[in-house]
Amino acid sequence: MKMERIENVALIRIDTGKGNAINVAWLERMNELLFELSESDARAVVITGSGAFFSAGLDLPSLLPLDKPAMQKFIQSFNDTMLRLFEVRLPMCAAVNGHAVAGGCVLALQADYRIMSDGAFKIGLNEVPLGLGLPAVVVETLRSQVPASSLLPIALDGRLLSPHEALELELIQEVAPEAAVVERAVAWARERGNLPQVAFQQVKRSLRRPAIEAVKAANERDAGRWTESWFSESGQQRIREAVARLSRKK
Fold first, then answer.
1. Residues 165-204: tens digit of each pLDDT
2. Residue 211 in domain
């Protein structure tokens, strides 16, 4: 994972392999890059993935062996990192270059604007079919980003959506040709980066404050609840089935 510069735009490119799945090392590196971003003079940021994946979500094979305290620590770290992304005051665009599943969709939701590659890619929150709940950082950032009528099909049905289905539900704002998705995202970010910075940041913070406060109020309690769903009988069975499917694909 690295950060590049294109004029006034910082480009964070996720290239961690294994579908850019999120594990402990992934979170540590993202937090390093967010610190670098806070120390830079960038005026906007774009986050994108590599290959066929924006991010496949949590790295299930590496997380399955964790005991309950370790898993709760991990999900708390995940929540904290996603909230740090949500609190970035710069204009942020997600260039969703490929599949954005579960935690990958959550990552995209932290941006102000989402542009997805047109192709045989999927995006969505499939936690409920896996027997998992949604932490407050997911529910509140989703609630602040999509219309109320889209919450049920996205969060409860747990379907993985094509780019055009996601556009219809306003989970994303644009569909672009695969070869042009990063270029389009950088153009969006550059334009917003040229707006008066103090005014943009003040208004963005005000718009996001209710979600941020709700997440912080529920965070520790919510991590415990999510961990219980992870270790429930149905949750463990479905997660193990998902890991087995991943193993067969290798």
1. 999 999 999 999 999 999 999 999 999 999 999 999 999 9
2. no
- On average, the pLDDT of the chain sits at 94
User: Please, are residues 186 and 42 in contact by the beta-carbon 8 Å criterion?
Assistant: no
pLDDT (tens digit per residue) in 118-158: 999 999 999 888 888 899 999 999 999 999 999 999 999 98
| Closest C-alpha among 46, 180, 168, 48 to residue 104 | 48
Domain count, the chain: 1
**Structure-token pair, residue 4:** 């590049």
Q: How far apart are CA 78 and CA 96, in angstroms?
A: 19
Q: What is the domain extent for residue 71?
A: 2-182
Q: Residue 159 belongs to what H/E stretch?
A: none
Query: HSE-up of 217 (CA within 13 Å, CB side)?
Result: 7
Residue 175 covered by a domain? yes
Is 44 in a helix, a strand, or coil?
A: strand
Whether 213 is covered by a domain: the verdict is: no
Find out whether 157 and 150 touch, Cβ atoms under 8 Å. no
Report yes or no on 225 lying in a domain: no
Which residues fall within 8 angstroms of residue 182, CB to CB, at 6 or more apart?
11, 46, 48, 95, 97
- Separation CA 142–CA 149 (nearest Å): 12
pTM of the model: 0.94
Q: Which residue stretches of the chain are H helix?
A: 24-39, 60-63, 68-87, 103-109, 136-145, 148-151, 163-168, 181-193, 197-231, 233-249
N-terminal to C-terminal alpha carbon distance within the chain = 23
For residues 217 and 157, give the distance between their C-alpha atoms in angstroms, rounded to a whole number. 26
How confident is the model over 224-248, as a mean pLDDT?
Answer: 84
